[in-house]
């Protein structure tokens, strides 16, 4: 497009403002593309369209004025309080996974929820801390701020001690920075640039296997709190294996008091959750088992002085109030790009999957790109307030729905509950043993560990998906969650290529009295059409599977009807006819008649390459290749540019359906080789004598 054409489309006052700002005399095309995105957006969104753009960016302004207060208020209130109570123990527990003090888990359960309340489009998911995201954050914080960097010399010559305050401060800064960067990725790269398609490679088997493997990482990371040991931190490939070996070597140093607290808490939680599940039929509001557990554990720890008497590690100081925003550590951004991108993809993939489930169930639409923006803003703004990356939790979302939550008003109320805890109640939990938080994590991971049952079900239904599940688990366990995710996606893409190279080939028959064609081997009532063979491939035909397609076709066709066999037989027949012509002039008419029966084979197109073959076949032979139903205009155009069509192979060989091609063959139009192209499924039709 020329510059003058651009000037016609951009108002003069916009041109003038841009020229003044840029300090140039002419408005060039490149300047327009690179410098005035905001101005062009403004010109496209003037008046009603600008209002529509703004409301779609801030969905709260659309649905909150129409909020049905009488119908939804009570349910959202009860749901918000119930979910807010769940945020307290989960937020503190998942902060341990992120290797930051527990209070920052409460911050992560407050700020991001308010942001999602404004920008999110799902009515039912509960955003906040999530185990998988937290363990991914923990791998970054412990890698960039290991304990060894904060050892200070003690009073003795050979003694050293850990500067916990400095270490925690550095880890909080790292967690907030990587969270901020992941939010930027979600908003800019995935949201505004519409790069959200990357999550389409996160198939359900991949996601379920990945979360199962991440749960294993979570469990191993919490063993030190359950046994009261202090293993060395490992990073990189096989770090999980090294950590398990280190934990086993340190079992002799187990703190008995800590181990007893862990065992008692796990048994109590499991029993209480089972009783709560039985009582759920009679009690509409779920029993806050985890809240009751941490209250009892805090009281017991305070009364028995577990920290001093038995050496049980406790949560420690929980400051009251909120913190002022802090700028991210720009110097650290380069060392965490890969981690931030993995967090952005995983967080969005989990949230949109759960959001779509509820949207389908309750008949409303979730805007996938707006969800990216909402989650991105939740993370980027939350990162400024020392939060770590969030997603949505299945358990909290189910509680939010089951207790009557109808909108994100329930989420806002849960955030207010956390605010009250931060301002007034948080300091009461300073004597809570960390072993109790680890036990809460173990019990909450029961659902993820049950996903091992997927292997059995996938073996019965789809073995390729089963292989994806197993490989994702192995890769994620052997590597860190971020590297494991990348390797798993790469393997999943390879399986897509593998499936196209090993499709299912079948012979189609007709359902009597209809224009429906189905595989003969799968349906008893389907019958083959006499004299016609319909060959079907389940995969798209391209260069990688073209040879296998041809081989499979030849296998389906009887050897006596094989094109090469026909060619050789007809060649001998023609030679014999020439001898008869020379030997007897009386057979001249018969020889000419037989010569007319000779048929020239046309080109066989394999993945865009045309290989010329000549075939002689009988009058009743109609052989066609490479064929697609409802061929799109773009493919036809590409064939025209590639000189596929000529005076012998014209567009008359194209058919819109299998039935049209069959009717063509049945009408006696089979004197020459016919090419019938059809899309979606690749079908080759052969009428044989």
UniProtKB/TrEMBL annotation:
<feature type="domain" description="SLC26A/SulP transporter">
    <location>
        <begin position="75"/>
        <end position="472"/>
    </location>
</feature>
<keyword id="KW-0472">Membrane</keyword>
<protein>
    <submittedName>
        <fullName>Solute carrier family 26 member 6</fullName>
    </submittedName>
</protein>
<feature type="transmembrane region" description="Helical">
    <location>
        <begin position="250"/>
        <end position="271"/>
    </location>
</feature>
<dbReference type="InterPro" id="IPR036513">
    <property type="entry name" value="STAS_dom_sf"/>
</dbReference>
<feature type="transmembrane region" description="Helical">
    <location>
        <begin position="408"/>
        <end position="425"/>
    </location>
</feature>
<dbReference type="Pfam" id="PF00916">
    <property type="entry name" value="Sulfate_transp"/>
</dbReference>
<feature type="coiled-coil region">
    <location>
        <begin position="567"/>
        <end position="601"/>
    </location>
</feature>
<dbReference type="InterPro" id="IPR001902">
    <property type="entry name" value="SLC26A/SulP_fam"/>
</dbReference>
<feature type="transmembrane region" description="Helical">
    <location>
        <begin position="372"/>
        <end position="396"/>
    </location>
</feature>
<keyword id="KW-0812">Transmembrane</keyword>
<keyword id="KW-0175">Coiled coil</keyword>
<feature type="transmembrane region" description="Helical">
    <location>
        <begin position="174"/>
        <end position="197"/>
    </location>
</feature>
<dbReference type="InterPro" id="IPR011547">
    <property type="entry name" value="SLC26A/SulP_dom"/>
</dbReference>
<feature type="transmembrane region" description="Helical">
    <location>
        <begin position="283"/>
        <end position="304"/>
    </location>
</feature>
<keyword id="KW-1133">Transmembrane helix</keyword>
<feature type="transmembrane region" description="Helical">
    <location>
        <begin position="340"/>
        <end position="360"/>
    </location>
</feature>
<dbReference type="GO" id="GO:0008271">
    <property type="term" value="F:secondary active sulfate transmembrane transporter activity"/>
</dbReference>
<feature type="transmembrane region" description="Helical">
    <location>
        <begin position="469"/>
        <end position="498"/>
    </location>
</feature>
<feature type="transmembrane region" description="Helical">
    <location>
        <begin position="94"/>
        <end position="119"/>
    </location>
</feature>
<dbReference type="GO" id="GO:0016020">
    <property type="term" value="C:membrane"/>
</dbReference>
<dbReference type="InterPro" id="IPR018045">
    <property type="entry name" value="S04_transporter_CS"/>
</dbReference>
């Amino acid at each position: 497009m020329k510059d003058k054409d651009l000037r016609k489309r951009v108002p003069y006052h916009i041109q003038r403002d841009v020229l003044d700002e840029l300090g140039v005399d002419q408005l060039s095309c490149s300047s327009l593309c690179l410098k005035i995105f905001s101005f062009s957006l403004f010109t496209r969104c003037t008046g009603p369209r600008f209002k529509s753009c703004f409301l779609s960016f801030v969905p709260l302004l659309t649905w909150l004025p129409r909020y049905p207060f009488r119908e939804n208020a009570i349910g959202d209130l009860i749901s918000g309080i119930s979910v807010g109570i769940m945020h307290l123990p989960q937020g503190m527990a998942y902060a341990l996974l992120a290797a930051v003090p527990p209070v920052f888990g409460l911050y992560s359960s407050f700020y991001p929820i308010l942001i999602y309340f404004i920008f999110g489009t799902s009515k039912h998911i509960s955003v906040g801390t999530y185990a998988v995201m937290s363990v991914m954050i923990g791998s970054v914080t412990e890698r960039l701020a290991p304990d060894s960097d904060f050892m200070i010399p003690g009073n003795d010559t050979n003694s050293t001690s850990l500067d916990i305050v400095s270490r925690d401060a550095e880890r909080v800064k790292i967690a907030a920075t990587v969270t901020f960067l992941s939010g930027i990725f979600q908003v800019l790269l995935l949201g505004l640039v519409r790069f959200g398609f990357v999550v389409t490679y996160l198939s359900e088997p991949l996601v379920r296997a990945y979360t199962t493997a991440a749960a294993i990482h979570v469990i191993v990371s919490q063993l030190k709190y359950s046994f009261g040991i202090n293993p060395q931190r490992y990073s990189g490939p096989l770090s999980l294996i090294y950590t398990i070996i280190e934990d086993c070597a340190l079992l002799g140093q187990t703190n008995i008091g800590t181990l007893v607290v862990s065992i008692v808490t796990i048994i109590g939680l499991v029993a209480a959750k089972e009783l709560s599940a039985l009582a759920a039929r009679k009690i509409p509001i779920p029993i806050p088992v985890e809240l009751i557990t941490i209250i009892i554990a805090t009281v017991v720890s305070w009364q028995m002085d577990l920290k001093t008497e038995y050496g049980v590690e406790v949560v420690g100081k929980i400051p009251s109030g909120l913190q002022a925003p802090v700028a991210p550590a720009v110097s650290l951004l380069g060392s965490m790009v890969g981690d931030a991108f993995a967090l952005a993809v995983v967080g969005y993939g989990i949230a949109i999957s759960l959001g779509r489930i509820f949207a389908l169930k309750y008949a409303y639409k979730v805007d996938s790109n707006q969800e990216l923006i909402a989650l991105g803003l939740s993370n980027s703004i939350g990162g400024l307030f020392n939060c770590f990356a969030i997603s949505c939790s299945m358990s909290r979302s189910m509680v939010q729905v089951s207790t009557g939550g109808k909108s994100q008003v329930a989420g806002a109320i849960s955030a207010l509950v956390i605010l009250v805890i931060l301002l007034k109640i948080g300091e009461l939990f300073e004597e809570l043993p960390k072993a109790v938080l680890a036990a809460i994590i173990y019990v909450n991971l029961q659902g993820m560990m049950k996903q091992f049952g997927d292997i059995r079900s996938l073996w019965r239904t789809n073995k390729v998906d089963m292989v994806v599940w197993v490989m994702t688990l192995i890769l994620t366990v052997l590597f860190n969650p971020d590297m494991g995710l990348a390797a798993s996606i790469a393997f999943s893409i390879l399986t897509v290529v593998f499936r196209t190279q090993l499709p299912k080939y079948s012979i189609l028959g007709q359902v009597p009295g209809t224009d429906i064609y189905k595989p003969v081997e799968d349906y008893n009532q389907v019958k083959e059409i006499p004299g016609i063979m319909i060959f079907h491939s389940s995969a798209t035909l391209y260069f990688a599977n073209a040879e296998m397609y041809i081989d499979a076709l030849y296998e389906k066709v009887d050897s006596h009807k094989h094109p090469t066999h026909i060619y050789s037989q007809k060649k001998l027949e023609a030679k014999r006819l020439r001898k008869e012509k020379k030997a007897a002039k009386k057979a001249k008419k018969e020889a000419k008649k037989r010569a007319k029966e000779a048929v020239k084979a046309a080109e066989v197109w394999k993945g865009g390459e045309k290989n010329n073959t000549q075939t002689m076949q009988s009058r009743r032979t109609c052989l066609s290749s490479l064929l697609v139903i409802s061929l799109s205009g773009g493919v036809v155009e590409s064939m025209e540019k590639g000189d596929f069509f000529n005076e012998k192979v014209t567009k008359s060989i194209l058919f819109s359906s299998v039935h049209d091609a069959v009717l063509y063959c049945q009408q006696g139009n089979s004197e020459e080789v016919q090419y019938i192209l059809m899309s979606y499924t690749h079908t080759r039709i052969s009428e044989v004598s």
